[in-house]
Design a protein that fits this description.
Strand order of the largest sheet: 2-3-4-5
Number of strands: 6
Order of helices and strands: HHEEEEEHHHHHE
Number of helices: 7
Strand content: 5-15%
Shape: globular
Radius of gyration: 16 Å
Structural class: alpha+beta
Helix content: 40-55%
Number of domains: 1
């Protein structure tokens, strides 16, 4: 993992077309999808900057001073990491991260790992047989290693408890008369 003063995972992905391709498919962190379909703002009013998107129309946002949020195409949003490194850990270590949010907070580590494996089975069998190689290539390029799914989920839960505010659709302000 990059140390203090070294480029973040996002910087490294932005600088390398190879890493950007590996992050986009099949890991679903696509820099070319950073533009959200509608205007959103953070509930706190802090500026949001789209950094990547996923294949469902969702967008990852850097929220000034308030971590990384993900907004889906249905208007739901929430804090998913304290920073880009948390998101890197989710993207590479917790496949199907959207689906694990429904698991109860007290779900055991073995159950989280089993759910992650089960979620990866379909993509691996149908459209992403090289999933492990893609993930390993991305992690090597970022100078990192894969973390267990339970760790990504645990960090996600801690982050969600720390800052429960999300994003909302931006409503146009009435024109001045």
């Amino acid at each position: 993992m990059p140390g203090p003063g070294s480029p973040s995972a996002l910087d490294l992905i932005r600088r390398s077309p190879r890493l950007a391709r590996l992050a986009a498919f099949p890991l679903d962190f696509d820099l070319e999808r950073a533009e959200h379909g509608e205007e959103v703002e953070s509930a706190s009013g802090a500026p949001l900057t789209g950094i990547a998107g996923d294949d469902t129309g969702g967008t990852y946002f850097l929220c000034a001073g308030d971590g990384v949020r993900c907004a889906d195409s249905d208007g739901r949003a929430g804090l998913i990491g304290r920073g880009v490194e948390d998101v890197r850990e989710l993207v590479t270590g917790l496949p199907g991260r959207r689906y694990h949010l429904a698991l109860p907070p007290d779900t055991g580590d073995d159950e989280v790992t089993a759910a992650a494996r089960a979620h990866e089975a379909d993509p691996r069998a149908s459209y992403a047989p090289g999933l492990d190689a893609h993930r390993a290539g991305l992690l090597a390029g970022l100078g990192s290693r894969r973390r267990p799914p339970r760790r990504g989920r645990r960090r996600r839960l801690i982050t969600a408890r720390a800052a429960p505010t999300g994003c909302r659709r931006r409503t146009p302000t009435p024109a001045a008369r």
